[in-house]
Write a structure and sequence with these properties.
Length: about 900
Amino acid sequence: MSHELEDVWPLSPLQEGMVYHALLDSEGPDVYAVQLILDFDGVVDAVALRAAGQALLDRHANLRAAFWIDDLDQPVQVVVRDVELPWEEIDLSHLTAAEVEGELRAFADAERARRFDLDRPPLLRMALIRRRDGKGVADRSRLVITQHHVLVDGWSAPLMVRELLALYDAKGDDSGLPSVTPYREYLVWLSEQDRDGAREAWTTALAGAEPTLLSAPPVAAASDGNAPVPALPERFITHVPQETTAMLQAQARRLGVTLSTLVQCVWGVLIGRMTGQDDVVFGAVVSGRTPEVPGVESMIGLFINTVPVRVRMDAGDTWADLAVRVHGEQGALLPHQHLGLTEIQRAAGLGDAFDTVVAVENFPAARDTSAERRAAGAKIAAIEGRDATHYPLSLAVTPGDSLKLRLDYRSDRFDRDAVAVLADRLVRLLVSVAGDAGRCVGAVELLSAGERERVVGTWSSGSVVEVPAATAPALFEARVVEAPDAVAVVSADGGTVFSYGELNARANRLARLLVDRGVGPEQVVALGLPRSADVIVAVLAVWKAGAAYLPIDTSYPVDRIRFMVEDARPALVLTHTTAAGMWEDGTATVFLDDAAVHAELAGFEAADLTDADRVSPLDSACPAYVIYTSGSTGVPKGVVVGHAGLVSLVVASGRRFGVGRGGRVLQFASPSFDAATWDWSLALLSGAALVVAGAEELAPGAALMGVLGDAGVTYCMVPPSVLPLLDVGRVPASVTVVVGGEACGPDVAGRWSAGRMMFNAYGPTETVCATMSEPLSGEVVPPIGRPIDNVRTYVLDQNLSPVPPGVPGELYVAGAGVARGYLNRPGLTSERFVADPYGPAGSRMYRTGDLARWNSDGTLHFLGRADDQVKLVPYRTR
Ligand code: AMP
Ligand code: MG
């Protein structure tokens, strides 16, 4: 054979992409090896079929192309004149029907796995397999055409079959067939297009677009360089019911858009909802068959192109709004679809912007080949096409009475279950748009009934636990009655400061003094005290008087302190003389380190107070404390937490952490943080001892390790960033560690959970603690766990709809621990504390501003802040 060169052509953009891909990915099977399988009933004339295949090659120059890339600036395709069709005949007629099926599949797979050399034409081969049919009488044959995608697109497949059969009938003589429009004409047309204009159009269309990635990145290549060879894509097929298919088509007509646009809108909404984005990009396979090339619709070759589709969803968009807008945007880009994807992405600065591709296969000739089937002497029983893609996920939609949805996915990026769930959601969205284009896309249900039941039911709800309808001081007093001599407060060196009885007596005296000054329920008493046992006495005294305490860190700037005092308007400030300068003239103050006050206190009775002693009755709905946090606005606001929530938290966490009599809880957090309230409530409401130390004694490092050991601490709650400053080996395994307040890294979790109880607790000040993990283990990013007893958590999108498991959404918290709101800020309160649509009537939920997702096991994963909220360091020890 001469291998005479007939012509040299440039490549079309997708051809170029495929050639580069083949170069990069030269190991294992080539994903772009595609197959067409024709099954014949009856006797096939092998000689005529082979002649027909050869004639096909002879007629179409582009099927005889080789691709040259080495040492060239631009790859070229070289058309070779005389190319012999690679032809193989295999006889399997000796095998039984059962044996033959396996053999056929193995053969097709092997053929597909045999790589083509792109520079050795033709990139096409045929094999005819003869076999007996099931009954063992008549002959059956299968023709397997394996070719490289760089030659032909899916649209060409039925055209190719039609020509092949016509040529078969004519025994390879093509004189009866219409003449071929050369592929070169299309390439010429391509070269005449305005590429600068196209680049500009795509740049504009994609400005500000965000990459949209649905799949997890592939597992990192093995360090020895023997990365697993990616297998050919797996396939998942499902169908849209006939009735829905008809309704979809009618809907598209009514909206004046194509079915393809409708499918693209649905895909956009789907991946948007699954990535938490309202602006998404994915690829679309376009036919590329421009009407400007006459006869293009019957040409055999590669015309398709992959171009980006951007779908932006505005709040309140209906399916109709979206479809009409996307239709308009697509229409404007239609003249620019000839530009290659690499160039588009380069121009738009988008990089690898997407990992999903959608193709709506509206091949004109795909529908009916029955005429050809009959025409061929042997009847064709089936035509099966096997197309390919290197994208992690591609959706191919084949129109018909019942829309066929084919999802090809890379198994290193998606597992089959995830793809099945995706397909399920896709159909649900298609049903939605088919049924009512006036529906708001954001409100369309994405979840199955089962998923919904989990994410706003079983997973979202902590155990419902009976909690005493008591206030914090009542619970404390119950512990006093049980064991008045038990240790209540311990110092850094482990020495007893107060027994429960002593602490109670002191708190009662101070409470009576407060009542004497007119303090009562629904009032605020500020505590401007350094870390000391005095703080604990003061907290209990304020509670016993019925008021809520407001901790004020006297090391804060004076402006900030004044702001809090002005905002909260405390009835009284309990403080030390050292902080006297902090308070404006006219502020009612009581100095707990003043001898005169001591004398006055000694005059009060030490017995517990009852409602009869208080200004007005105290109940569990009353505020227990007010703590200031800075929100996204940066303006601090007072969070008001009631007794009921605090008591529920203490009961739940006491059980989870195993804190009770005999335990020793370190009070690590600064009194001005809610974590401190948790510490002292956890200890003193459950009968344990509270370890109170000075700021220097708690400095993360040697000092803190000393306290943990000396004071016999059994439980401490610290921000995870404190732990790397300690030597894990020097902290007894008997110390249970709870981390919270910020994300904990896998290394810290791994090191500190080994041989020790360790938990991750999550919650903003507005809900104290909302979720807790199980005991942690292993070097993994610890989950924040599940909602604690009597608390509900939801992961919702902007429409307050639950997002599917695995999808990021905003975390909402409802139930017992939720604060009453912000002190004197009804507007802000109603903005952040909203009606809970999934809870009992009248219940509220707090919008945390944190992003989270559900793991498949029903635990929550923290993903960061939804905005750039200013956050104070939670572990100040002063
Ligand atoms: P604050 O209201 O100052 O207590 O801050 C609460 C914020 O700290 C939460 O909204 C989260 O952003 C973050 N946070 C609290 N606990 C955790 C945790 N366990 N993991 C990650 N972030 C946390
Ligand atoms: Mg906190």
